[in-house]
């Protein structure tokens, strides 16, 4: 195992103090799926739209939470401009919908969204459905892998530019089938599964750049991603004990 991969694995091990430090001290904030809407809509659109900037596309199309997305794009552009003007090496890591247990005692983002098929929370499920509709996929990554990737790009001298952090592309229907099979005691709330839902992802987000430079994801399947999140959901009161 290379030194780079070793760092990634070490950061993503359970109870790892490096991972906890990244979460507690602001190195990571849970990513809502709509963070990606601007980039995905921009890439999946026709060639004429691809020539427009992310901000122009978002303002014209107004996908769900488009104002939130615009703020993300503008902040990143401002940070990049500042880094160039002051000779700072800037690396951007863009995580997709982030799942898994965290040291945080409260959560308001992707964890309740991704547990909504079991909790029956319609408002949280509506966010999940909006992500799939806007992105044409349900892109997931485990929190430990996000923290591992942040440490990896911070320690890797050759790291530069933007990195997409995504280890799995799935859909709500695939997620529902998985949850129904593995956690029958909760019962998937099938009443939520209405409207236009995808059988298979139409878009697959790639972490090829991150992987090519030596990072290894630990969690690549729904089975691995949800193992600790069910217990986390119970601890937070999202799911019954």
From TrEMBL:
The keyword NADP applies. GO terms for biological process: flavonoid biosynthetic process. Keywords: Flavonoid biosynthesis, NADP, Oxidoreductase. One of its GO terms (molecular function) is oxidoreductase activity, acting on the CH-OH group of donors, NAD or NADP as acceptor. Residues 1-38 are annotated as: Disordered. Pathway: Secondary metabolite biosynthesis; flavonoid biosynthesis. InterPro entries: Epimerase_deHydtase (IPR001509), NAD(P)-bd_dom_sf (IPR036291), NAD(P)_dehydrat-like (IPR050425). Transmembrane segments: none annotated. Residues 59-161 form the NAD-dependent epimerase/dehydratase domain. Residues 17-33 have a biased composition (Basic and acidic residues). Gene3D superfamilies: NAD(P)-binding Rossmann-like Domain (3.40.50.720). It comes from the Eukaryota. Belongs to the NAD(P)-dependent epimerase/dehydratase family. Dihydroflavonol-4-reductase subfamily. This is NAD-dependent epimerase/dehydratase domain-containing protein.
